Amino acid sequence: MNILFIACDDACHINGQLKQLISGFTLPNLEALMASGTNFERAYCAVPICEPARAAVMTGLSPAATKSFDFQGGWKTYIRPEQIWPYRLKEAGYYMVTQGKIFHGGGPRPGPQPQWVYDILYDDVPYDFHQAQYAPDESLSTVMPGYSNAVGTPRSWPDEVQNMLYDYRLADRVINFLNTYSGSKPFYCEVGFYRPHDPHEAPQWCFDAIPLENVHIDDVWMQTWEGSAYADQFVRQFGGGPGNGLDPTQWTEAQKLELRQAIRNYAAGYMFMDYNLGRVRDALAASPFANDTMITFYSDHGYHTGSRSRWHKFTLYEQAARAPLVISVPGQTPQVVNTPVSHIDLGATILDYAGIQVDSGFRGVSLRPFIEGQPGATHDPVPTFWYGSFSMIDSDMKRTTIYNDGSYEMYDIANDPWGFDNIADSDPDFNAKRDLAIETAYDWGYLLVENAIDTSRPSLFQSLLGTEPTEVPVSTSFAALGDLHELGRNPHYNLMYRHAMTPGEVMRMPAHTRSFRRYGATTPISNFSIVANDEDNEIQMGGSWTGEAYFGAGDDTLTSGADGQMTVYGMDGNDLLQVTGGSKKIVYGGAGNDTIIGGGTGDELYGGTGDDDIQGRDGADTIYGGAGNDTLHGGAGNDIIHLDGGADTVIGGGGSNTFVVHRKGQVSTINDLTASDTIDLSDWSAIQPVAVAQQGNDVVVSAALERLICLNTTAATVSSRITGATVS
């Protein structure tokens, strides 16, 4: 069975918002898909933020496992492509295709992910749809009235240039694939639409289809919204709203008009996505694959279209957490499922229908019982994370939310769908629901901290209690666990070690801290050094900075996406040291069996003692394995790789690489010697000439006690690539 995996961006559930706000509004193609497959009316994202929402879906893992709660780092910082469920499909023999925005990226691109991610996951080369490359002349557009945020101005375009807009071009690519694919393998094709994400743009016909007089603000909105003052303050740090206030009775007529115009603009973009969804579905119906293709459709998260004076995601309310999820399996009986489910279940469901067992640690569960209408199908409570806070909804449709300042909310969504009345203080079910929410979050690897709670329970992450939402939200909201459980028995404490970075400073992590993160920083910091303790430290560095990082005796993890030159000393322990970003990085693994991963520039990577795994990735890197039996990956670029101790295994990767082979009395192996590579045997000059002998598919280079094996090549090729020593 083929799989058509379709995603869109920032789409609220049509039945939950737009049909209440726009008289007669319809999305004919999405609604037709809902009517022909299984419409999960109550499907929820894991995190109402682009990057982590998509990471949860595409990995099938809890945000605590991927460490993706926000825009920082990204799933691939911690998870290899081989560990996510699409790779299981590739292993099973699927032809893998990706088009459009599937993982989070900066703008409407197919990622953007590093090329090595695509090389591992897909057979087809993704097409870059970036809007700047093909957008029509902006002078042709008409600026539409209504709220406009920092992402861009809402615009209508003449109908005749719609074929130059992103979602149309994407549909063209997918249609071409469906019309031309003739391979013997079943296909898995990802389709990532960009709308209705802002800026809200669409052809003029989409706006014409939504008369402004049909757009209204729901009468139930005309009362004061109840909820957590902490949540309101925290939400407003993200902007993204008309700012009309939480008391609609005070809104002016001009504010109401602007909101109605904004709703129309959003709906027009949604309609254009729907139009192109229909084009793809029509092409599938006309193709040979029509009766043997499973279709899935989801949006990464929902969206506030003005409720709570919000024009954004970034909340734990129903409007941001709930988003479309539809699965259509050939031959199925159409179903409407009102049981709450999670978007994270998508991967498990696809693997189930493909006959593939999910990996251990998978959080998603197969929705096949619901699709096939099995009586009594149930689902555990569905969690949604939001920085240091947490919300849960279960089968009785009561949404229970715990904020990390100790405040609570609960809404009876069945009877209060917009979430006006906070019933946490009056509902007899609240205490039991709160306890269930805490246990659900803990089961997903996240310990919600309350006064006097035992924080010594093992967990990947825990929330902070008593944190004022006045600084960068991420670093004031959750922390990787350190030895801090004693503090957890006292109210109003902060678990995250927070530190203001200043140029020229040496910052030493105190003994009670295991995690240091620099988030949201835009000011460059020069000559800053961080010295870890002897615990198992985790350091994440973003922004632009130069300096040094020193680790101790523990098994440490460094993730740095920082721009600027830096030097890292792993010291003792089995460390994971990953450096990305611009400018050269120098990394010393030190003692222990380390993993060192370079970035996109020419880095210097030193393994030290121990059996190390060193990956140069992009750029012209210099790699020294050091003592121990190391695995050295050059990656893309013209790398210099030193085989200088132990029995090393080398994978040069792309580019023209130089393998510098030192005298060491150990047998090393080059896996992928090419005609553009060089084997530098200068260190063997005292024992030259060297012998080059073909042994089966491999070649052995030897002199005195030294040996080098080159796999899957010829003696002639090896001889021609040797420098620094004569060949006998």
TrEMBL record:
Record-level GO cellular component terms: cytoplasm; extracellular region; membrane
Single GO MF annotation: sulfuric ester hydrolase activity
SUPFAM superfamilies per UniProt: Alkaline phosphatase-like, beta-Roll
Primary location class: membrane
Keywords: Hydrolase, Membrane, Metal-binding, Repeat, Toxin, Virulence
Recorded coiled-coil stretches: none
Record-linked Pfam families: HemolysinCabind, Sulfatase
PROSITE patterns, alphabetized: HEMOLYSIN_CALCIUM
Sulfatase N-terminal domain mapped to chain residues: 25-356
InterPro entries on file: Alkaline_phosphatase_core_sf (IPR017850), Hemolysin-typ_Ca-bd_CS (IPR018511), Hemolysn_Ca-bd (IPR001343), RTX_toxin_determinant-A (IPR003995), Serralysin-like_metalloprot_C (IPR011049), Sulfatase_N (IPR000917)
Compartment(s) where it occurs, according to its Swiss-Prot or TrEMBL record: Membrane
PANTHER family tied to this protein: IDURONATE 2-SULFATASE
Protein name from the UniProt record: Sulfatase N-terminal domain-containing protein
Lineage: Bacteria, Pseudomonadati, Pseudomonadota, Alphaproteobacteria, Rhodobacterales
